[in-house]
Structures are given as structure tokens and as C-alpha cells.
Write a structure and sequence with these properties.
The chain is an alpha/beta fold. Helices cover 17% and strands 28% of the residues. The protein contains 2 helices and 19 strands.
């Protein structure tokens, strides 16, 4: 027979009450600590952060002094924002899904040069207001994402994204306009 406490945890999960069970109280405290620690460390390193950020545990900010985040920014667990020699600017009311990556630098790929010897190529990244970047999506250096755009889960954004469109795929291409049913 199953543990009655575990049965309740499963019911809570199924009904959307993930943190309602006392057996998960430790996670509430751990999540709050990790969220606060990640944000404090990034701000201490020079990152500019607007009002009301929501940063889940496991989010990584690298090159914090080059990162600027607007108000009401939400980023889910395991996401990475990495600036190298060029700024990353993220607008207001931007949502970044779990395991997404916003990367400001890449390596060259010249033939005849070992990968470890390739030069670093750093370019700014700009994400407009009211943008949703889906789970596991990657935004590469030099990209500007227009206001109101949606980046589908798993997409790799290699070029600028127009305002209000939905992009998906590898490389990301326009697959719709915001407001159409179906989600990203």
C-alpha cells in the first residue's frame, strides 16, 4: 500500500497545489533562498533590475554588469542569461521559460582553426516589452526581439524578430501572429 502522505502529494500535484503539502515545506524555503540569492548576487555584480522581478531557482546570470532587466520580469528555473563584452537588454513584462538561454557571445567557426582557438564574437541582444520566450528556446548574439513577440519552446533565434509575431523552429521563422490560438 502506498504511503498516505505520498498519495496526498500526488493529489496536490494533479490539482495544481504543488507546494500545499507539508512534506514540501522544505522546498518553499529552499526556493525562496535560491531565488533571493541569485538576484542578490547578480545585482551585487552590477546587473540593473526593474521592479517586481520573479526569478526561480537555478537561473544563471553571467556578465551581470552588462545585463539590464525591466519591470515585472519573470524567468523560470534553469534559464541562462549570458552577456560577454556586449549588453543584454530585456524589456518590461518579459517572461522567459524554463531552460531557455539568452546568449550574447559565440565562437567563430573559421575552417582550418581549431574550435578552441576560434575568436569570441560578442554582440548585443535586445528583447522588447511584453515578450514570451518559451521553454528551452535559445536567443543568439546580435538578435533584437520586437515588443509583443512570442518565441516558441525549443526555437533557436538567429535573426531579428518583428513585433507581435510568433516564431518557432531551428532556425526560428515566423509561424504566426500573436493572438492566434494554439500557444507556443
Amino acid at each position: 500500500m502506498a504511503d498516505p502522505d505520498l498519495d496526498q502529494v500526488y493529489r496536490d500535484l494533479k490539482e495544481g497545489r504543488l507546494f500545499s503539502h507539508p512534506a514540501l515545506d522544505w522546498w518553499k524555503e529552499e526556493a525562496a533562498f535560491l531565488q533571493a540569492h541569485s538576484l542578490r548576487a547578480a545585482v551585487a555584480a552590477g546587473m540593473k533590475v526593474g521592479k517586481n522581478p520573479s526569478i526561480e531557482p537555478g537561473v544563471i546570470f553571467m556578465g551581470a554588469k552588462l545585463i539590464e532587466i525591466g519591470d515585472d520580469f519573470t524567468v523560470s528555473f534553469g534559464a541562462t542569461v549570458r552577456a560577454v563584452d556586449s549588453p543584454i537588454r530585456i524589456g518590461h513584462q518579459v517572461n522567459v521559460g524554463p531552460l531557455a538561454a539568452i546568449i550574447g557571445a559565440n565562437h567563430g567557426t573559421a575552417a582550418g582553426v581549431a574550435m578552441q582557438d576560434q575568436p569570441h564574437v560578442s554582440k548585443p541582444v535586445t528583447i522588447g516589452d511584453d515578450v514570451w520566450i518559451g521553454a528551452g528556446a535559445t536567443v543568439l548574439p546580435g538578435v533584437t526581439i520586437g515588443p509583443g513577440a512570442v518565441v516558441a519552446a525549443g526555437a533557436v533565434v538567429t535573426a531579428d524578430v518583428e513585433p507581435g509575431v510568433v516564431v518557432g523552429g531551428v532556425p526560428a521563422t515566423v509561424i504566426g501572429k500573436r493572438g492566434n490560438e494554439g500557444g507556443a
